[in-house]
Amino acid sequence: MDNLTDSLNVIFTETYYWITVVMMFLIHAGFCTYEVGASRRKNVLHTLMKNTMLIPLVTVTFYFFGWWVYFAFSNVPFNTGGFIDAPWALPWSELMGTHMGGGTDPDAGWARINGVFWAAFLLFSWTTASIVSGAVIERIKTSAFLIFAVVIGSFTWILDASWGWNPAGWMVQILGYHDAYASGVVHAIAGGSALAIVTVLGPRIGKFGPSGEVRDIKPHNPWLVTIGLFLIFTGFWGFYAACNIPIYNIGTEEAPFFSATNIYLMPTTLSAITFNFLMSFSGGLMAGYLVSRGQPFWTYSGGLAGIIAASAGNDLYHPVQALVIGGLGVVFMYYLHHWVERRFKIDDAVGAIAVHGYAGFFGVVVAGFVLWGYPAAAPVDGSMAPLWATPEGYPQINPIGQILGAIIMFWVLGFVPCYIIARVLKAMNMLRVPEQVELAGLDTHELGDAFPYLAHQETSFETIERTYAKDK
Amino acid sequence: MSSTGVDSFTNPHLIGPIYPGVGFEWLMVLIAFVLWLLWHVIQISGEEEEYSAAVKLYREVGMERAMHHATGAIATEEEVHISKS
Q1: Exposed site from A70, A316, A442, A456, fewest CB < 10 Å?
Q2: Cα end-to-end distance, chain A, whole Å
Q3: Pair A146, A58: CB distance under 8 Å
Q4: Structural domain tally of chain B?
């Protein structure tokens, strides 16, 4: 930090990620608002607390082991090289605390980046766990959900990021996997996890009628649902920015060329992703409005799903491609959601499996065809040869790698681990609240009515006020 | 006298970690790890007790009254205070 240009670069990067973290907080505010709005009045406070408490638990466990997993597992198990040494990410490292970057530590360059970079990844962790939270509302035990949150937020998602969202990850180096804004690494894995849990958990009481007909369980506050989605849209800007490296030399030492890059250190610009974010969002809203015939819930969800469907390639798409892919992704997820709901009696209370899982899976696969041939990342010394390579020897984006990648994200790392854990929790009677509690409402016995002043009854406090008022 | 090992910021080139307890990070992490696990144990146990008590109460008062209370429909003074009984 004794050179002004280098120092400005470091401090700008530190500030850049710090701002993305603050913006991404809005995603969680949005998820809480959305879920609370979607739940019935008798479950509002339980829903809120279940989602809120994933924040501290994923944070501390991401500090303990999640951050280290990201660096350590990028070769494991399919590439040569074994576990990668990442001393700066171990929880007992001096670099996991207040550190000025001086002294003799060879990794001291991490001193000013470690905390903000850790936090940016952590906010992705919250998002991944929070996506699952919405699907399971109104019947899961908080304790069970928090176990899933730790597993998904601090292990499975960050393992997939190590494999497929890291320039040295084996999926990138061998399969040519490309997923710039996390269609698969955040959204598809969250959707697969949610599908596994609701499969074992079962539907809410009364969701399906005696003939198998699907009953609509109305949200207690649709306006709150839409505010929540607006907050998620806003926070998503921070999510996109956090997926980039703000300044990186993509040229050579002799002929430097500084640019923003995606997470794979391949070129893009903030301008490009701004075009594509807004166009895929618009395509999603337009398609959602049409397929749902103007239903607010699915139109807003369509906006989110449109972005997710285009996110894998939004660093490179043309804006019109982003628009069309976003729209098609929404049509795909909307019809698949309703077919799965009817066919398998899956009760996804907020459409999370569809919006994140199906649209994310779609986005990863489509990127393989549209971006076929681009370099995925620079080759790593000692890595196995990629299945498909560019003329310069870089791993190449391709449809087969993307299809395999989508399966790994949704099924292998999303569905399978959570299905096993859900089965174990169910066998221990730790998964679902008792039937009586579900019927009476999860707030009723302990937290009480969230809106007592809207009830057609006098609350105990109003009795006190009335007694007090008699003397006035 | 110092409890942190750092009493000067005059030569930043030589300054690395500046939090209290340098050298005891493993102990702090161990304590935090135990507290995390303990939190889960207490939370799980508390939630199980809470649901057991709720089920017992609902069996006593009947599900119809419990659900009547939950919806906020017109309720008697006794029903208003079900959760406190």
Answers
A1: A456
A2: 70
A3: no
A4: 1
Contacts of A106 (CB under 8 A, 6+ apart): none
For chain A, the structural domain boundaries read 4-470
Is any Cβ of chain B less than 8 angstroms from the Cβ of A199?
no
Residue B23 lies in a domain: yes
B67 close to A (CB below 8 A):
yes
For A323-348, write each residue's pLDDT tens digit.
999 999 999 999 999 999 999 999 99
CATH architecture for the domain at A4-470: Orthogonal Bundle (1.10)
Q: Report, in angstroms and rounded to the nearest whole number, the Rg of chain A calculated over CA atoms.
A: 23
ipTM of model: 0.91
Measured between beta carbons, the chain A residues lying within 8 angstroms of B43 are 142-143, 146
pLDDT in tens, A387-409: 999 999 999 999 999 999 999 99
Task: Using alpha carbons, list the distances in angstroms from residue A106 to A91, A111, A166, B9.
Answer: 17, 11, 22, 21
Q: Is the dihedral of CA A461, A462, A463, A467 positive or negative?
A: positive
Range of the domain at B59: 12-84
